[in-house]
Amino acid sequence: MPHSNRNFAIAYVLLVALPITGLIGVLRSGRNLKAPTSVDGVWRVQADATKVALSACVSALGLDPDTPVAISQSGKNFAISGVKAGGTGVIEGTTLHAALRPAGGPPSANCAGEGSVALTVTVDAKADPRVMSGVLSVAGCPLCEAVEFHAVRQASTQKKGAQ
Amino acid sequence: MPNLFTLVLQIAVVLVVCRAAGTLFQKIHQPRVVGEMFAGIMLGPSLLGWVAPHFSAYLFPASSLGFLNALSQVGVIIFMFLVGLGINPRELKRQGHAAVLTSHVSITAPFVLASFLALYLYPRLSDDSVAFTSFALFMGAAMSITAFPVLARILNERNMLQSRLGTVAIACAAVDDVTGWCILAYIVVLIRSSHSGTPIWVTLGGVVLFALIMIYGVQRLLKRFATIFEEQGGLSENMVAFVLVLVLASALCTESLGIHLLFGSFLMGAIMPKQQRFVRYLLDRFETVTVTLLLPLFFAFTGLRTNIALVKGPEMWMYCALIVLVATAGKLGGSMLASWLTGMPAREAAALGTLMNTRGLMELVILNIGLDIKVISPALFSMMVMMALITTFMTSPVLELLCPEEMNRKEVRPERLRDGALEPAALNATGD
Fold first, then answer.
1. Which of B105, B96, B116, B254 is nearest to B181 (CA)?
2. Of A15, A22, A34, the CB nearest to B128
3. Rounded Cα distance, A70 and A39, in Å
4. pLDDT truncated to tens, each residue of chain B (432 aa)?
5. B320 contacts on A by Cβ (under 8 Å)
6. To the nearest 5 percent, what fractions of chain A are helix, strand and coil?
7. Rounded to an integer, what distance in angstroms lies between the CA atom of residue B4 and that of residue B14?
């Protein structure tokens, strides 16, 4: 083998073949990593209509099964956007914490404070389609009762870059 | 039905802003395309939506974005055909071992570094519906791409296209793009086959068969176009339309095979005859509408999907800085090291690394595919878009430091242009 060809072969092994072996190792070790629970997609929210009506702050969010809410997720952070409300939150394990706010500010005098609604839900990561259940509560609003709700992710967006 | 008034208004605003930004960036010695990319970001939630949310909602209502996207995708299909048309993989063979090594290292180095970065970012910016393998491979492909057209444009503007550095850079970028798109096609197949239920080997087999038919069957037919062109000095309108139909048909084939539309149009461009005058002729027919009308819509649509506000807090900005650092170290560092080891002078090797680090529009195309198939999250998409902008923006000033323009004028070798090589005029189009 000519000298230049041998040098080329050595350089190729060191700079190309060896890193590719490293890549295979990385791909294997990465399989054990755990990413945050997926909540990205469109969800249909179901809540007791009577209880929602009793809470001025929660009713202002306009949550009903006919108007789904969209969750856009980036790792542990997510943003919720509905027809009448929006907010941001964080995922810890299978629990979501978020603050929702009506689009037009405080809805009525019965909704004390700024009308911010705290959302705390647990995701059932094993369910297919994925479901979550939790509670919407308002701090500092004596007239607002906590409202329990249940949400189901719509099929069209529940699967992403799965292998 | 689209709201025609809104759509026409959107197109008009996008064109004005993109042309203005492009002109402004040209004044600071940047390629026009960098300005247009910035213009797209400015029209999105990162600036217009933040400063004037009501006007932004009026101008770009969510219900209208589907039509804007459709138009921009048609533009990108034709653009990818033009990119394929401008690429001549045979260039690499002419450059010898040094270019082969440089080219392959400029793919593997950023790819491997990106996969290491994926180990860190996956638990922080992805979610459990995305497999790590898909995530890491996508990050690798996205970081190893080079914006062939922008690179060619920069070389042309700096009168470096015929220099040794220029020819090696063009050859390496061509191979990088072909390899990068092959890897991306595999990732898309990997992800889509898991949804469709079709075994991956069936999809891959179909893609390989399609590629073989294109290379060994269709390519021979395409040579007829070049022959007719040589005989008649041009192609009739029907012939040009037929080329366009072939591009669309190829795009539809790859889409129905389970990979993206863009792979088909790119492949059709790549297998087209490479006679210089023929390439120039086709570029002249397709480039004006694509570059001045349709691509700005793509920049705007990308900008509308990019929300820098998602990158909030020091932690997220640290991820972003890390992405830029790894992308630059892998691409610039890898190319520089390989070319230096193969005997290129250090300054020239650094310049080559800088050129290879240009990602530009090609990166945006790949990132949009990643966001579409949801292998990357919106925040990561925004960070990667910023990386694309920064790495593209830094090319011209760094190159000026390493190879001042006066030096290039002395070094130029005009006899280098030959049939099949990418002529400067042909490069103006897609790189502009």
1. B254
2. A34
3. 10
4. 568 899 999 999 999 999 999 999 999 988 888 899 999 999 999 999 999 999 999 999 988 888 999 999 999 999 989 988 887 766 656 666 777 888 889 999 999 999 999 999 999 999 998 999 999 999 999 999 888 777 877 887 777 777 778 888 888 887 887 888 888 888 888 877 776 667 778 888 888 999 999 999 999 989 999 999 999 988 999 999 999 999 999 999 998 887 888 889 999 998 999 888 999 999 999 988 898 899 999 999 999 999 998 898 899 999 999 999 999 999 999 999 998 888 889 999 999 999 999 988 888 989 999 998 889 999 999 999 999 999 999 998 998 888 886 665 555 444 333 333 334 334 444 444
5. none
6. 25, 35, 40
7. 15
Is residue B93 classed as helix, strand or coil in its secondary structure?
helix
SS (H, E, C) B280-292: HHHHHHHHHHHHH
- Identify which of B390, B207, B219, B199 has the alpha carbon closest to the alpha carbon of residue B311: B390
321-340 of B, contacting A, C-beta below 8 A: 334, 337-338
Which pair of tokens denotes residue B225? 């176009």
Work out the burial of residue B29: count CB atoms within 10 Å of its CB; fewer than 13 is exposed, 13-18 middle, 19 or more buried: middle
DSSP β-bridge partners for residue A71: A41, A80
Whether the CB-CB separation of B118 and A25 falls below 8 Å is answered with: no
Q: How far apart are CA B150 and CA B431, in angstroms?
A: 4
Of B127, B140, B190, the CB nearest to A35: B127
In the DSSP assignment, the letter for residue B309 is G
Task: Tell me the whole-structure pTM to 2 decimals.
Answer: 0.84
8 Å CB contact between A161 and B375 = yes
Indicate yes or no: CB of A74 within 8 angstroms of CB of B138. no
CB contact under 8 A, A159 and B129: yes
Closest CB from B116, B126, B374 relative to A26: B116
User: Measuring CA to CA, how many Å separate B69 from each of B65, B75, B210, B268, B368?
Assistant: 6, 10, 27, 22, 11
Tell me which amino acid residue B204 is.
L
**Tokens of residue A8, six digits:** 């080329």
Matching residue, tokens 């440089």:
B102
Q: What is the ipTM of this complex?
A: 0.85
Q: Are strands A69-74 and A77-81 parallel, antiparallel or unpaired?
A: antiparallel
Identify the sign of the CA torsion A134, A140, A142, A144.
negative
| A146 closest CA partner among A49, A80, A52, A46 | A52
User: Cα-flanking dihedrals φ and ψ of residue B161, to 5°?
Assistant: -65, -30
